[in-house]
Amino acid sequence: MVPRAHMYNLSGSLLGPSPSPHGMGFRDFHPAVLATALATFIAFLGIGVVDPILPSIAKELGADHFMVMFLFTSYLLVTGLANLVAGTLATRIGSKNTMLVGIGIVAVFAGGCALVSSVESMAVLRGFWGLGNALFTTTALAIIVGVSAGNSGRAITLYEAALGFGIACGPLLGGFLGAQSWRLPFAGTSVLMLLGFVFVATTVTEPDTEGREGVRALIGTFRHTGVRTNAIVGMLYTYGFFTVLAYTPLVLEGFTTMQIGLVFFAWGLLVIVGSAVLAPRLNARFGTPEVASAALTAFAALLCLMWLVSSPMVLAGLVVTAGLACGLLNANLSTLAMGISTHSRPSASGAYNSLRFTGGAFAPIVAGYIGGNYGAALPFLLGAAVITLGLIVLLARFSAFTFATPDAVGDH
């Protein structure tokens, strides 16, 4: 039986001590970790900022649910594909420079979304926005892990908390600004990203170089059973994640833009609780793969309930509750992605995120089509089925995450 105080990969190498149940003070983190976490918070505001204004965009631009969902699909599909090259680029020009390029791209194209007058044009701009997001997310996680020797588990927890808080505050910002005009949230995101660019440029340090790896090496990471299994599970889970995040605002009938923003703000807060509070405690006691399995089960069950309920208020309550499961899964799947690969951190992160976001890309348009043609609640049932499939994959390959205690323990 493996002591839960540490986490090991298949070869028995130590991934680093898992987070203490009592947490870790901010002063214990490397300044670059804190700087990157703050930049992550700013960057992920842009994902949730669109949520509360989706009904307004659909109404004012005369688009149906299927077309509006392309705002998420183009973003996520490009994000997933771009992750295949983001890690490679980072090993050549450096993680910090790659992050800055990504932030700059997001700032430009988020501002562009505030100026266009058609859903089609906005979807194209959101695709470029997704490119910037891919460059950022791959390198942000790599920097945080790279400068956190001995504390990578805690650093990943901080990263996921910053990510969750960004996604949580995005709908709040979108609801507040979107109550005035649907264009303002895009403009606000652009301004924040410009501020983030300055902040990263002046405070983030470059981690140690891990050597150059090409796209072939990144794709080669999938030969590892654990890496492949984790990425597939992440892909299937992210489908359910974006079914909730992207589609639900369209079916919260009677909710104002601000009310939708508040619902997803509360959801995001529980994402933080799940990733930063529950995950360290539960993982220390039961193990990361075991907690991930339980969280997948709970998330699938909540989506089934979303399919069954008819009250928008009850649906909103279930969405908020789902944040706990999402937080646990975000933290645990990212931890496994960065720990079990023998390749460089940018490549490991890029490989995982490529499948993760590609899986999420299909959720919005599939949900929009099925919901518009076969029943507004049916996409939740499909999401539950996809997540259940992810659970089956994880349980079938559970031995890939069976950690063996090494004879000599040392930091990896």
UniProtKB/TrEMBL annotation:
The chain crosses the membrane at residues 32-54, 66-86, 98-117, 129-149, 156-178, 184-205, 226-248, 260-279, 291-309, 315-338, 350-370, 376-396. Residues 32-402 form the Major facilitator superfamily (MFS) profile domain. Keywords: Membrane, Transmembrane, Transmembrane helix. It comes from the Archaea. One of its GO terms (cellular component) is membrane. PROSITE patterns: MFS. This is Multidrug resistance protein homolog. It comes from Halobacterium salinarum (strain ATCC 700922 / JCM 11081 / NRC-1).
